[in-house]
Write a structure and sequence with these properties.
12 helices; globular; disordered N terminus
Length: 297
């Protein structure tokens, strides 16, 4: 049994990103110039301390508008994704990056996080691994530097969340391009960062956009791509167990997992176990048919 070939989009650039990013570079006012250009100072008999205080206050006022726009864009992204308007959501993620650059600067971790979100959007909303890798790579070094130097647990949690998303994006993007070793290497890093993040939460609720099940499945597929069949099967068995624990053993979500587990067992020449997985697929499909008929009546 062979896996179906993965279709890889051939687009290597993105007009929306190039246009928006170019415009932002033209229109952005450097932080150190904003106060001087918008609010000329000097004279009036003010002391140096008073002048500096007023400059700081005006600079804060100047930045409040982009921050409001950023908050609005972040909410809009969530709504567009919910409505399955993927292209529009991706454009809004570009807007979030532009606004983050204006507010925080190119080398701040929050700007890098916005790039990681955009990379994940290119992967999951548009199916474009080339763009996904480009923006994830741009964000990586900044996030790693901030993680190494941060002292706040809250900030570290947010950076770790971004790193999980970033390495997951890189891993799956490489996998879509049939580069199993690179995929597995990055997904392992995502797994380590997720483990560190869960330790920081100390047993609390840790809800991530990239779920533990998403990561487990990706690791299973990457393991299969590099022919580590026993490891691949272990990941798929874990994913199956997690889905059963969350949704029960009759959910249709198990069908695709059983299909891939059966494929691995075929490759391991364990035909009896492969047949058992295929029988489970038949039972789940039958359950789904009966449920559909019951809803019709």
């Amino acid at each position: 049994m062979q896996a179906s070939p993965i279709r890889i989009p051939t687009v290597s650039n993105d007009i929306d990103w190039d246009f928006c990013f170019h415009m932002s570079q033209q229109t952005e006012i450097p932080a150190h110039q904003q106060t001087d250009e918008l609010y000329p100072t000097g004279g009036c008999g003010e002391s140096e301390e008073e002048t500096k205080a007023k400059e700081k206050e005006k600079a804060i006022d100047c930045m409040s508008h982009p921050k409001e726009k950023l908050a609005q864009s972040q909410k809009k992204v969530a709504q567009l994704i919910k409505e399955k308007m993927n292209t529009q959501a991706n454009k809004e993620l570009i807007r979030c990056v532009i606004l983050s650059r204006i507010i925080f600067g190119d080398h701040h971790w929050k700007c890098a996080r916005a790039l990681a979100n955009l990379a994940y959007g290119y992967l999951t909303l548009r199916g474009l691994p080339v763009q996904a890798k480009k923006h994830a790579t741009s964000a990586k070094n900044t996030l790693l530097t901030w993680k190494a130097n941060t002292t706040s647990n809250k900030e570290k949690e947010e950076i770790l969340e971004a790193l999980v998303k970033l390495y997951y994006t890189l891993g799956v993007a490489w996998l879509l391009q049939n580069r199993g070793r690179e995929a597995y290497f990055n997904l392992q890093k995502a797994e380590r960062n997720m483990k560190e993040l869960k330790e920081l939460y100390k047993g609390g609720v840790c809800e991530l956009q990239v779920s533990e099940n998403d990561l487990t499945l990706a690791l299973g597929r990457a393991s299969l791509a590099i022919h580590r069949l026993n490891l691949a099967l272990a990941y798929f068995e874990k994913a199956i167990g997690d889905v059963i624990a969350a949704k029960g053993d009759r959910t249709s979500d198990l069908i695709s997992l059983y299909e891939e587990a059966a494929q691995i067992e075929q490759l391991r020449r364990n035909h009896n176990q492969a047949i058992q997985y295929l029988q489970q697929i038949h039972l789940r499909a039958l359950d789904q048919t009966l449920n559909d008929q019951a809803r019709e009546h």
